[in-house]
Amino acid sequence: MANQLVLVLDFGGQYKELIARRVRECRVASEIKPGRTSLSEIKKISPIGIILTGGPDSVYRDGSPRCDAGLFDLGIPVLGICYGMQLIAYTLGGEVSPCVSSEYGRTKMTIEPASPIFSGLASLPQIGLMSHTDQVTKLPDGFTSTAFTQTCTNAAMANENRRIYATQFHPEVENTPNGTAMIRNFLYNVCGAVGDYDIAGYRARMVAELRAQVGDEHVLLGLSGGVDSSVCAALLAEAIPGHVHCIFVDHGLMRQNEGAEIDAAFRNRVDFHPVDAEMRFLSKLEGVSDPETKRKIIGEEFVRVFEDEAKKLKKQYGTIRFLAQGTIYPDVVESGANESATIKSHHNVGGLPKDMTFTELVEPLRGLFKDEVRALGRELGLPKSLTERQPFPGPGLAVRIIGDITKEKADTLRQADAIFREKVDKGKLKRRPDQYFAVLTDTKSVGVMGDFRTHGYTIALRAVYTTDFMTCEYSELSPAILRGASKEIVNNVRGVSRVVYDVTDKPPATIEWE
Ligand code: XMP
Q1: Distance CA 33, CA 36 (A)
Q2: N or C, fewer C-beta in 10 Å, the chain?
Q3: Cβ partners under 8 Å of residue 11, min gap 6
Q4: Closest CA to 317 of 257, 243, 372
């Protein structure tokens, strides 16, 4: 039986995915659709509740995103957030006007604890994250105000008879400490949720769907060792054992022990084809210093190696019609392609051969957010080194070796990087960086070891906090970690005489050095 589902209608806010995730954390399935989704489609989906997201526009501006007024007559409970609240007020005959003074940030508010979405919460002090320049200045008929701040008389509103609720603040963000409780209240007190969504259920449903889709045919998967392709492989292995063929191209620019870890995790789960292509890649890269050229060469060579391997498999199994991909929900939402996905370029570096004869994509992670993919990986018994793996660029260490690449440089960087990562992993930290690694710069500097002067490479260490990898802040690591890493690297890694720490945010810098 299908899960109960909450529909998140998107009006351009930056938190739509966060809303959908919060709903799932409350054990209710959720799906994001554009704000303009038709009433007939909504009826077909038959959600138990609808959440209208925030958005940057003003509802009273011509051309701003609107919804069909009939949405509020479907008898389905609605929760409007920020712009979503203003949209409800505007559509149902209230008034929305610019704020006298805009409210941004954590704001104290008084709530009406008798309102079902605030049930169980004290009226004071509540904190809500506000971020608005417009507000509801006249409530629509039948609505009452259920929260206020110093400058916003309608920080929340409700029409209990019609089961329509709204908040001017953002309950989905961490800066609203009781926000998840409010969303849970909406789901369970208003929408009648039963809590039938969890990762174990997703796993069981996907296994059944994969069996139905693939039958007794075969599936090919390019395994990179990243979280998504690894979890995809493990799920396929459970669903259609003996029918999953994974190609793992080791371009020789992986981190220390990475190839062996992937090998150990998959050798006994799937028909695993590791390809040691180190020499092939390094010879193509010889003398190349330009980062984009490196990326291009690696991307093209990846396709060649994959093709060669796939041909061998074809001889054994005949034509393989199915190609599996680790596409995840944010890829689906961002591309707006809910129906037909295009083949995602592998590793972001090249893309799979255009002329291969796959006729059907298998994308069992299409419904999951990244943290759910990790949870599913844990459920499937994958090791932590894979499920908690930090992002690693497709071209690997090639973009962390400044200038031309040699095997010696790759080995040097691998050692330094492993030492630094271990120090961070074992160090005392308030918050673990989201990505951390070493870079081999092309700068040599003078050092002194014993009575000898040395002239070795400079290693740069980089550790950043980020959620979206579009921006980042450098992590303030403790002196113990930095000094410990520096000492161990210079003492143990031949050819390195100096270690520096990168203290640049993005922007203006990027996360990788190349
Ligand atoms: P930048 O350096 O652009 O990195 O701030 C943002 C994120 O993207 C990763 N990255 C790559 N990933 N192929 C990839 O698959 C690449 O060529 C590539 N370059 C950067 C980077 O590690 C970070 O997570």
Answers
A1: 8
A2: N
A3: 35, 52, 53, 54, 55, 57, 65, 83, 84, 87
A4: 243
Bond preceding residue 507 cis, omega within 30 of 0: yes
Q: Say how far apart CA 342 and CA 161 lie, in whole Å.
A: 45
The reply to whether ligand 1 has any atom less than 6 angstroms from the CB of 85 is no
* Residue 364 CB less than 6 A away from ligand 1: no
301 is catalytic: no
Residue 260 scores a pLDDT above 80: yes
Centroid of ligand 1 to alpha carbon of 416 (angstroms): 20
For the Cβ of 242 lying below 6 angstroms from any atom of ligand 1, the answer is no
Residues 94-119 pLDDT 10s = 999 999 888 889 999 999 999 999 99
Distance 227 CA to ligand 1 centre (A): 15
Q: Tell me the mean pLDDT in the region 410-417.
A: 98
What's the CATH architecture for 199-387? 3-Layer(aba) Sandwich (3.40)
Which atom of ligand 1 lies closest to the CA of 512?
A: 2
Q: Given CATH 3.40.50.620, say whether it is the number of domain 406-501.
A: no
Query: Which entry of 172, 309, 379, 514 is annotated as an active-site residue?
Result: 172
Farthest-apart Cα atoms in the chain, separation: 86
- Structure confidence by residue, pLDDT tens digits, 179-235: 999 999 999 999 999 999 999 999 999 999 999 999 999 999 999 989 999 999 999
Q: Which residues of 177-194 are buried (b: 16+ CB within 10 A; e: fewer)?
A: ebbbbbbbbbbbbbbebe
Q: Identify whether 172 is a catalytic site residue.
A: yes
Minimum CA distance residue for ligand 1 atom 3: 510
Residue with tokens 């081999």: 440
Q: Are 97 and 61 in contact (CB under 8 A)?
A: no
pTM of the model: 0.82
Q: Which residue has the higher pLDDT, 123 or 398?
A: 398
CA of 496 to the centre of ligand 1 (A): 25
Sheet holding 144-148, edge to edge: 29-34, 5-10, 49-52, 78-81, 164-167, 156-159, 144-148, 95-111, 126-138
Beta carbon of 176 within 6 Å of any ligand 1 atom: no
| Same fold: 5-190 with 406-501 | no
Tell me 190's DSSP state.
I
Q: Using the atom order of ligand 1, give the atom closest to the CA of residue 435.
A: 24
Q: What's CA 119's distance to the chain center, in Å?
A: 32
How many angstroms separate the CA atoms of 146 and 165, rounded?
A: 9
Of the listed 26, 67, 170, 258, which one is catalytic? 170
Q: Does domain 5-190 have CATH number 1.20.1250.20?
A: no
Residue ranges per domain, the chain? 5-190, 199-387, 406-501
154 lines ligand 1 (CB under 6 A): no
Distance in Å, CA 10 to ligand 1 centroid: 28
Calculate the average pLDDT of the chain. Answer: 92
